[in-house]
Amino acid sequence: MTSKLFSPFKLRTVALKNRIVVSPMCQYSADDGVASDWHMAHLPTMAVSGAGLVMIEMTDVEPIGRITPGCLGLYSDACEAGLKRVVQSAKRWGGAAIGIQLAHAGRKGSSHKPWDGGAPLKPQEGAWQTVAPSPIPFAQGWPAPKELSEADMERIVAAFAAATKRAARIGVDLVELHGAHGYLLHQFQSPLSNQRTDKWGGSAESRMRFPLRVVEAVRAVWPEDKPLGMRISCDEWTAGGLTPDDAVVYARALKARGVDYLCCSGGGNVAAAKIPVAPGYMVEFAAKVRREAGIATRAIGMILTPHQAETIVADGQADMVALARGFLDDPRWGWHAAEALSEPTPAPPQYQRATRDTWPGARIVRPQTAAAAE
Fold this sequence. Notes:
eight-stranded parallel beta barrel, globular, TIM Barrel, 12 helices, alpha/beta
């Protein structure tokens, strides 16, 4: 084995067979937070994709923490039972570790599904009161969220801890907190959305206080031998917003509290931000945080091809790479990456007869990877 992308990677006691991650992707297909048959089809499919780790989509810790009424939750016995069924299937048939991303949407909640326009729900459509560190709407035309009281904040901390205990019971291998994309933990960290004047706002240190409080509560109840990660925002692409240097400071604080890796993202907290989307446009964040904070990182942001992913890992820019839409487009991306990098195809035995080495058709439909392997 010569590929760095297909080399194993260990986080605490969880051994990933390679550095490829299926990114958490909202499916908006739950029933009152409960995983549906869609999840039973979707996640086990991702688990046989050839990735080393499959992340369950943003999973909310209380009902008002959902983005839409169709978002997945882990806040009730029904949520726990529904998701346990999916996780058990994915782990039985797939070869990937399974992680879950726990979150709270804050002021970006109570909205329509993206394919229904994504606008805020109206009262007659079942809207709920959203919450945030400060009563600042996400964008023009959005309702003002309720400013969280300290009692509210303690309720949310407890909800994160309770969801983490449920995650342990359903058998996931790692927990990741969502501290990016403009959701609640990010809202507290950012000076653009947190304008509190108490101990939870003001300086960068004070704005980090609430998300760090959540991290501490989660780490305290999550098994010591299992890894904890977090997705953070490394750039808001808006004057006065968070920068990559802020991300390094945050990363050091998170590492000190038992976080094992960071998924380095950006944007999402300012609707009008101009984000320079291009292949690999956020990889530099993972490289900087890894280098300056001394913590494992996962790179994201239009990672498209196997050779691009291989270079990111081989050059030490990140320890893992994650693809989202790449896996929706090609649920066998991991197989095809192995072909392109001359590695054994990581297909389950039920599908082995359809690999490059066993099926002549693979060499016909993907001649470029066949040539690379010869």
